[in-house]
Amino acid sequence: MLKPSDTSLNAVRVFTVVARRGSLAKAAIELGVTPSAVSHQIRKLEDRIETPLFHRTGNTIELTDAGRMLNEESTAAIALIDNAVASLMRDANEIAVQVSTTLAVTWLIPGLERFKRRYPQARISFETSNRADFRLGQMTDVGIVYRRAGHYEGPGIYLAPDNCRPVVSPTLLKKSGYQGLDDIGRIPALKSTEDNWDWRLWAQAQNISEFDLTYSDRFDLDDAAVRAAVAGLGMAMSPNIVAGREIDSGALVPLPGIEPVEMGRYYLLLGPRRHGLVGRFVNWLREEARAYDGPGG
Questions:
Q1: Domains of the chain: which residue ranges?
Q2: Which residues form a coiled coil (predicted)?
Q3: Considering the entire predicted model, what is its pTM?
Q4: 3-class secondary-structure state, position 241
Q5: How is 75-108 classified by DSSP, letter by letter?
Q6: CATH label, 90-297, candidates 3.40.190.290, 3.40.630.190, 3.40.640.10, 3.90.780.10
């Protein structure tokens, strides 16, 4: 009895090209072989599975029902194989990183010179988006995802906590007359998360009502909310990883008397390449996270 593993992968690959091009001749040109060689591979595959894959009428071909099913399944499988091989063949000095836009701009890129000082041959390829949690791309070596407090389940290696607190410009803080939490409504709260879950969590940790807050402008990125806070538009809920430079420069100050609250955690997702320069990059990320007492500490 023949086993599925006896099926020629090359014959399946040729079949998918024929199915996509709709012609033996066109498939032969793409593959750089003769039409008879393509026809031989198709016949070989049909004989192997004992099922016709194409209806043949004169010089035209059309997928059978079985052919359509095989094409859908095998095209996706071959793409996975090609991506895996390409990933292994990539330059050993290239590291593909997937990360949120805010984390890349405020933490990772500003500190990257320290990594390249150690490994000047390294070349980092960034893929950024507004999504905090995502699935690792096929060609990605390292991803940094974010999960909200209470939603920590999922794959990944723990990197650091996301410890947040309100930050505000010194000018606005003085102008508001803020003395303590009883005055929290005097400073507009800038919104940068869906349904303001971060402000609600913070208010709960302070034993105050969310209704004590005075919400103001909304932004789609934490970094944008921090810029608005610097401009004196209100206070932003932010970790040091995002607002650290502004705090160090004096452009922002943490709200007095308020301890950071863990809003979530950062996790590392790793691709198939985990050794060499990729492994050193992962170790460096963990060092950098500890230097911040974790992103946002």
A1: 4-89, 90-297
A2: none
A3: 0.67
A4: helix
A5: HHHHHHHHHHHHHHHS-TTEEEEEEEHHHIIIII
A6: 3.40.190.290
